[in-house]
Structures are given as C-alpha cells and as structure tokens.
Hints:
The structure holds two protein chains of two kinds.
Chain A: E1 4-9, H1 18-28, E2 37-38, E3 46-47, E4 51-60, E5 63-72, H2 81-84, E6 90-92, E7 99-101, H3 111-114, E8 122-124, E9 129-131, H4 137-140, H5 153-157, E10 163-167, H6 174-181, E11 198-200, H7 211-214, H8 220-226, H9 237-241
Parallel strand pairs in A: 1-11
Antiparallel strand pairs in A: 1-10, 2-3, 4-5, 6-7, 8-9
Chain B: H1 5-32, H2 45-64, H3 84-107, E1 115-116, E2 122-123, H4 125-149, H5 160-185, H6 190-216, H7 224-228, E3 235-239, H8 247-251, H9 258-286, H10 289-313
Antiparallel strand pairs in B: 1-2
Helix pairs in contact in B: 1-2, 1-4, 1-5, 1-10, 2-3, 3-4, 4-5, 5-6, 5-10, 6-9, 9-10
Amino acid sequence: MTQLALVIDLNVCVGCHACVTSCKEWNTSGSAGPLVDERPYEADPTGTFFNRVQTFEIGQFPDTETVHLPKSCLHCEDPPCVPVCPTGASYKRKEDGIVLVDYDKCIGCKYCAWACPYGAREFDEHSKVMKKCTLCVDRIYDRSLPEADRKPACVKACPTSARLFGDIHDPQSEVSAAIRGNGGYQLMPEWSTQPANHYLPRRQTRIKIHPDELERSDNPRKRDAQLPKPGPTGPTIEDAVGW
Amino acid sequence: MRPPVSVIFLTTLIGAGQGLFLALFTVQLYTLFQLLPAPEPRNLYAPGSLLVVLLLLAGLIASFFHLGHPERAWRAAAKWRTSWLSREVIVLPALLGAVALFGLAHWVEWKSTLATLPSGGQIDLTVLLGTLAAALTFGLFVCTAMVYACLPFLREWHSPLTVVNFILLGGASGFTLASAVAVRAAPSLVGFLGVWALIITALASAARIGSLVRNARLRPRSTAQSAIGVKHPKIVQKSQGAMGGSFNTREFFHGARPTTMRMVLLGFPLLAFAAPALLLAVGLIQDAPFAFVVAFALQYLGLLGERWFFFAQARHPQNLYYQSIA
Lengths: 243, 326
C-alpha cells in the first residue's frame, strides 16, 4: 500500500510562502477551474488556498524562537472527513492514499470541513464546492512532464528544500528515512487520524568553535609578535599540527 | 462554530414537527387502549398531520439554503452506510411520506380492522402507519443529533446528551404545539396534551442544563502545543497566512461578543423552558386557550436561541491555527 505524503522540515522552513504562491498558481490554472480570489486588490482580500504558512512564536522574550508551519491537507490515513460525506464526493484513493474531493459530486454542505480537526479544507465561494490539497495529483502522474517535475508544486518551489515528497509506507523512501532519522511527528495525534504528512522538528544547531579556528596559527603578525621566543627557524608545535 | 441559520431552522422546525406527530400518535395509542375518549379524526389527526408535513417540508426547504449546490442534493442519499447526514437525508422524506399517509388514512377514515386487541381496541391501517412513522420519527431524531454527536473533536457535541436533547427539545415543542392545536381541534384533549407538554419541557430543561454544565467543565484536548507539535508551554501565533480572513475564520468562529453569548445563554432557558412551562400551567389551571399558542411561540423562539447557542458553544480545534491575523 502506497501512502503519498509530504514531510516538512520546520528546521529549514524560512516562512517565505513560496509554496503557498506556487500551490495557488498551479491549482488555479488546472482543469478543475480557478481557486476563487475575492476582492484581491481591496481592503479585505480573501480566497481559497490549499496551503497556508503560519507563524508561531515559541517562548518568552528574549528567549524566543520563530516556527513557520506550512499547513495543508495532511492526507490522514484514517481521514475523519471522508466517512461523514453524504454523497461520497470526499474519498481516499486506495492506490496512493491521497484524499480528494470530486467537485462534480460535492453538494457544498461543508460537513467535511466541520469534521476536519486541522481546518485543511476551504470552501470555494465561487464554485460552491469544498476544495483541498490534492497533492498535485494532476502533476505527479503527468508523463508529459520530465520526471524531476512530477512532484507537487509546493515541493518544487521550496527554496530551502524543506518539503519532501514520497511514499511514507516504503521504508526505503527518502521521506520514511527523514521521519525515522529526524524525529518526524504528526499534528494533533490525540484524534488518531494518523496524518500522512509529517513534520520534522526544530533542532538546536550548535557549532563548536575552537579558538584556533578563529585565530590563524600562521598569522604573520602573530608570528612577528612571537618572533624571539621559539626562534625564527625552529619548528613549532603549531607547524606540526596545523594544516 | 458559526451558527448556520438554515440548519438552525431545519433542526428546530423538524424537531417541532416530529414532536407534534408523536403527540398525535400518543393520543391515538391512548384511545386504542380506551384511556382517552376518541377525538373526531378529521378534526385532530388529519389537520395535525398536515401541520407536521408542513413543518417537515419547511425544515427540508430551509436545509437547501445550507447547500452550495442544492440541485445535487439527491446525491446525499448515497453514503448512508457511513454518514449520519446521509441517513438523515433518507429518513426525513420517508417520515414525511409516512406522516402524509397517516393523515390521509385518517382523513378518508380508512377503518378496516386488521386485528382486534383483547381489550377491544381496533388495530387498523392508521395504527400501522402511525407505528411506522413513530419509529421513523425517533430514527430521524437520532440521525439529526448524531450528525453533531459523531464528531469526536467537537467535544461539546460528542455526548449522548446531544441525542437526548434533540429528542426532548423536539418533543417538548411538539407537545406544546399539539396542545395549541387541540384548543380548536379537540378541546377535550387540551388538558392531556398540556400536561405531557409540561412534563417533557421539564425533562428537556433538565437534560439541556445538564449538557450546559457538562460543556462548562470541558477542558480542550487539543492545545497549541499539539496543534504544531512543539512542547513549549508558551506559544503565540504571529500570523495565519492571510490577513483578509479565510473560510476558516468565517466558518469556525461565531464572532459574537461575550455579552451576546451570555445573554443567549441566560435567555434561551427562560424562553424555551420557564416561560412555556408557566404559560402551560396557567392555561391548564385557568382554562385560558390562548396561553397554549403563546407558550408554543415563546418556546419556539427559545429553541432558536438554544440551537444558536448549541453551534456557537462548540469550539473547533482548527481555531488553534487561527488565533492571530498578523
């Protein structure tokens, strides 16, 4: 069983929203029709997006840390939005685990959005149907694209490679290795929805710097200052170990 | 949650209709066992059933305003195996049909006896149709309530009390309406229906206040920590990815001021329970027929407030991601 998913490295995400704009661009241009944008150049613009980057501040000033959290449909392995749909418009694909909405069957009752604890679904006020991340299903299987481009638009757009895409059920895959090796976790595990998308936590990055690395051992000025002591020609310890 | 007006009208209108049907069928069962004098069927059952059908139809029409694509509503019957909403969509028209037939059978006085009880009661087609419709009525109550009660993370709704409340609140308004209808249709039954309306209103107030107490003690299971997966106790949202609002900010926040919430919380038990109970008591003791009509009007208003509060009180965990605009 394949379960395609995104793995998002919060340690690398810089919150640039490139994934948001790239997602919107790809999904507003597809055969499913545009994603609505209401009053785009007025005081209160609003619209339907599949992907949002949200920013959280952790801790108390001055000991704070900023976390950017890109949030899209998590393609849960046990999606609560699917069984509640009265028409069967919401469904989870058996072959790759993508949760999709059939826009031609959706009656726009919004019950699936109520049933999603993550707020991943957004109603399109223009086409009056529920919309959500498709993992770029119209792109990842498109054989007319070069193989390197058969990835979700957000993954292709990320300038820091914070977004990985692959099959989390394949233990050999890049995403499985990232989840295993870097403590990948799921959002709101308390509802046992088993989101397929995982997040890699922020990690404390410390570089250990030895004083030697800041001060060149073969600094000529230093050599001048130290000139008389070891003698100008004799070997020094630094000559022996420095490289 | 933002209380959807169409759903408020759907649930309260069909609730009153279902309660009214149960009241009619209760009278018929009592007369079947000769516990009550039989009313003139064309006066009570037929117009009563017509009123039930009208209430159910009004609720059904209100529900269409909730849909983005009402023309596709027929598709909603597809997933009855998994979706309570789908089950509701099937049971509501079935009940409508059963009540219509029940009223019609009474109107044409279809009295061919199918069986006779040892006590002498005659079981005819209307009793069979009534039993079927009563089963569908309770089925519809359960379906309507389970639409809300089946969502585990909306903890204010995820309780058996939701189902109990939908049954009792619908029953209370329906029996009050039945007593108001009986003022003209069957004056001898006003006392019987009024007392039942009083009893069910009292039970409903106990159950609803029970659920208010339960909800007041709930502690959210999802936190900012579990929402973004960071353990630190202090997490403040700085941006939600959009400044002009989104579907998520419109659909899941009721937007009412705390004072409005408090006024509805104090007002709906008064309108839905206290005032109708008082008026029913006055009507029963003083023999004031007008009191039953006013009692229903006030109770229905109160139940609109109750349903508004039911939605507004539910705190959706997705709101954790929408705490701050920028």
